[in-house]
Design brief:
single chain, 186 residues, alpha+beta, 6-stranded mixed sheet
Amino acid sequence: MISNPAIKPKVATPALVLTSAAVALCLAYVVGSLAFSRPLDAAHLLGWAAVLSGAVIVGAVWRVRFRRRRAWLLEANAKWRHLEDARRTRGTTAEITVLSVDALEPTGSWITINWNRFGHVQPAWLEVLPEPIWAGSVLLISPDPTQIQLGAPWPATYYIRASNYFAWAPSADPVEIEDQRPLHQR
């Protein structure tokens, strides 16, 4: 399954939190019962093994989720840096947020966009781009002066040419993560 790269992955879900709490309680009970019962019988050993394996599995799930989130944050920060670099090096640009992808066609997609600077929502036709665009993506484009003019009404449908597209990033603002450089380079 391909997941939407514009959406930050969740780390803690209710099911994972409840499972972690249950495993922690069982672990506390098993450790307490092992501390007070000297002769270890098979039931205690099986309980200890089951709780320990449950704790390892839950810990592995937490670790995988933290790693996925960290990788997503690194990628999102890189995409935002690329978007900011493209904004500085290009002429007139505008940010639009893809609110929904309404229909996919071989030559492009019908999408609903929000002009971030103006708060205007409208349907748009997006030509095929080199990489897939998802709902929740912020696109940096060059506005077409034949479609957008001062004093004129917004067009009913905006056409985004692939040549007017420069970069994309997730819609959430990038979150700063700890510095990745070695200590001697900070």
